[in-house]
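Review form for a predicted model. The reviewer records the input and the model, then writes brief findings.
Reviewer: anonymous (R2)
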Amino acid sequence: MDAPLALILAATELGDAVERLGIVAATLLTGAALLAPSTRGRGWAALLALALTPVLLVADIWDSSPLVSLRDRPAVAAGVVVAALVAVVVLAVVLRRWPALLPLLVVAALPFRVPISAGGETANLLVPLYLVIAAGVLSWAVPRVRDEDDDAPFPPRWLEWLLCASIVLYAVQAAYSDDFGHGLRNVVFFYVPFALLFGLLREVPWTRRLALQCLGVLVALAVVFVGIGFVEYARKELLLNPRLIAAAQYESYFRVNSLFFDPNIYGRFLAMVMLGIAAIVMWTQRTRDVLWGVALLALLWAGLVLSFSQSSFTALLVGLAVLAALRWSVRWTVAFVAVGVAIGVGIVLLAPGAINLDLSSSRSADKATSGRLELIEGGARLFADKPLVGWGSGSFATVFRIEEEVSEHKATTASHTIPITVAAEQGVIGLAVYLALLVAALARLFGGGVRADPLRAYVAAAFVALLVHTMLYAAFLEDPTAWTLLGVGTALAAAAAAAPAARGEREAADAPAPR
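Model under review:
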C-alpha cells in the first residue's frame, strides 16, 4: 500500500473514531447539564454541549453538496454563521430580559420544519426551535457560570437519570451501528437539543395565565393549519413534500398535511391541541368557555379527519379517555373503553369486510395497517438475531432493507412501533432503559394531585396520547413534544410538591407567638 493512501485511510479512521467519541461526549455533557450538583456546573455543561453539537454536524456533512457549495464561497459561509450567531445572541438578550417569552416561543416554533440536506439525506428540521433552544440556553447558562453565588440546582430524580441514560446509551450504541451517520444526526438534531429544552422548561415558573397563553398560541396555529388543509383538500394539491404528492396519486383517498411534511405529524399536532381545549371544556364552569371550546374542537376535528391519520385518531381517543378518568371516574371510563374495545373486536371478527380486512390473509392485515405489520415482523426478526445489544442506534432502515431483502422505499422509516425499533437497534439493554423511562415518566406526570389541576391533567393525558402515537407511527425522544410535556410536567409536579411545605411555613409564620 502506498504511503499517501495509508495516511489517508488512517486519517479517515481517526476522524470516524473522533466522531463516535464526540457524540458520546455531547450526550455526557447534556446529561451533566441536567444532573450536575451545582448550577454553575450545569451552565458550563449546557454551553459546551451547545457548542459541540454543530461541530459534530459539520464534520459529518463536510463533504455533502450543500456544505461544499458553502466552502467554495467562504464569504457567504461566514455571513451565514455570523447571522445565525447574531440572531441567537439577540434573542438570548431578549429572553434574559423577558424570560416568560421562552415557553411562548417554544410552543410557537414546535410545528415548523425546514428541509435541510445533511449527509446525503434531506431532513425536515425544526430550525426555528433550534434557534429558540440555543438562545434559551445562553440566557439561562451565561449568568450562572458568571455568578459567584451558586444556588441549589433542580434536584434530579429517576426520570432525569433515565433520560440521560437513554441519550448516552443511544450515542454509545451508535458507535457500532451500520448507519452511524443516521445515529449521529439523531443525537445532534434531536437528543441533545431536546434534552436541553427539557432542562429549560422545568425551570419555568408555570402559572395558569402562562399556560393559557401557550395554549392560545397553539390554537391559533392549529386554526391556520386547518384552514390550509381545507384549501389543499378543495384543490386536491399538497403544498409540501413531493414524495407524498406522488404517493397520493395511487390512493383511493386524498390526505392533507397542511404545512407539515407528513399527515401523521399534522394529525398528531392537532390531537395535542384538541386535548388542551378538551381539558378546558371539562374543567371550566363557564358556559361561554364550553361553547367556544366545542366550536374549536369541531373545527379541528374536521381538519384531523382530512389527514386520515389512524394513529392520530387513536391517540386523541386515548387522551380523551385519560382526561375523562382524571376529571370524573376512572371506573366508568374503563367500563366505557372496555365496551368500545369489545364492539371494535366484534366488528373485526364478525364483519371484517366492513373495514376491508381479510383475517385469513396477512397481506390484507398489512394493508389495513398501512404496511406496519410487515415492518413489525421484520423488526422482531432483527431483534431475535441480536437480542442483547441490537444492530446499533439509527440502523433500523438500513439493516431492515438488507436483512429482509426489500426495496429502499419499504425501509425509509423505522418500524412505526417504537418498542420494536428500540429492540432491533438497541437490544434488551436499550429496551430495558426505554421501559424504565416510561415508568418514571408516567409516575412523574400522574403524581399526587394531578386530578385537581387541569393543566397537569392535560400534560399527563397528552403524554399518554403521544405514547400511543409512537406505538403506531414513530418518534418518541426524537419528538420535541415529548420533551416539552416532560419538562412542563416536571415543573408542575415540583410546584405541587412544594405547595404544602410553603403553606405550612406561611401558617407557622402567621400563628401567634407562644406566651
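Findings: The CA atoms of residues 357 and 365 lie 6 Å apart.
Further findings: Residues 208-368+446-498 form one domain.
Recommendation: see findings above.
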